[in-house]
């Protein structure tokens, strides 16, 4: 299938969202961006990549968030950017990188509020991947060779961080169906069928143009 869409993927930790996004990109023969988003933002902004990784999908406080969004909404010049706290710089640089990558053509982007950054794009199709907790615990425990209790803690911590980050930087709620074009249970379907379902939904989405 040839697509004109930019597919954004939100995901619960352990649901396989990244792996599913990569399979989807391979099936559609389009670029895939996960950590690559950070590299692009670092290259474009001149900020070292380690700072992007340190701030990656981690919440800031609401006061900083309001300052960032005010700056983004009303425009900013190079002097203002230079004077910003690092949280501001990382967020804005990542936001701009997402938009530039979307300008280059169809692709799959994982996380980092990409669906919100591209909300004004009619070709943006947003997906949220979820799964039941037990399935995610088993997957994380196996993948990282850890006990179930540690896998559970990692899942809860990561999901809380992603949720807080998304809720701060968007006007939507993380993991709520109304925030996305499509929500799908990878635990029930498995990765391959999840990819097939997304492709089928994409066909319907693009036929509506």
Describe this structure in words.
The chain is an alpha/beta fold. It has one domain: 3-Layer(aba) Sandwich (Rossmann fold), CATH 3.40.50.300. The protein is built from eleven helices and five strands, in the order βαβαααααβαβααβαα. A five-stranded parallel beta sheet has the order 2-3-1-4-5, sandwiched between helices. It is globular, with a radius of gyration of 17 Å.
Helix content: 55-70%
The domain tally reads: 1
- The name CATH uses for the topology is Rossmann fold
Instruction: Give the SSE order as H and E letters.
Output: EHEHHHHHEHEHHEHH
Q: Give the number of helices.
A: 11
CATH class: Alpha Beta
Strands ordered across the widest β-sheet = 2-3-1-4-5
The biggest beta sheet is recorded as:
5 strands, parallel
How far apart are the first and last residues' alpha carbons, in Å? 16 Å
As residue ranges, the low-confidence spans are 62-77
- Please state the overall shape, judged from the principal axes of the Cα atoms: globular
- The assigned CATH architecture is 3-Layer(aba) Sandwich
In terms of DSSP E residues, the strand content is: 5-15%
Mean pLDDT: 88
Provide the CATH superfamily. Answer: P-loop containing nucleotide triphosphate hydrolases
Structural class call reads alpha/beta
């Amino acid at each position: 299938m040839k697509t004109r869409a930019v597919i954004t993927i939100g995901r619960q930790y352990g649901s396989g969202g990244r792996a599913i996004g990569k399979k989807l990109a391979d099936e559609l023969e389009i670029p895939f961006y996960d950590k690559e988003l950070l590299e692009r933002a670092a290259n474009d902004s001149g900020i070292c990549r380690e700072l992007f990784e340190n701030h990656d999908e981690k919440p800031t406080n609401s006061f900083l968030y309001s300052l960032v969004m005010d700056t983004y909404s009303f425009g900013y010049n190079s002097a203002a950017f230079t004077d910003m706290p690092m949280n501001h710089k990382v967020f804005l640089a990542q936001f701009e990188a997402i938009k530039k990558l979307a300008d280059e053509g169809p692709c799959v982007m994982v996380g980092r509020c990409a669906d919100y950054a591209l909300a004004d794009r009619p070709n943006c199709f947003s997906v949220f991947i979820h799964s039941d907790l037990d399935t995610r615990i088993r997957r994380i425990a196996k993948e990282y060779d850890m006990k179930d209790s540690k896998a559970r803690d990692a899942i809860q911590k990561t999901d809380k961080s992603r949720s807080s980050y998304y809720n701060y930087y968007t006007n939507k709620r993380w993991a709520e169906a109304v925030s996305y074009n499509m929500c799908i249970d990878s635990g029930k379907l498995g990765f391959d069928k999840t990819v097939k379902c997304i492709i089928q939904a994409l066909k319907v989405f693009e036929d509506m143009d």
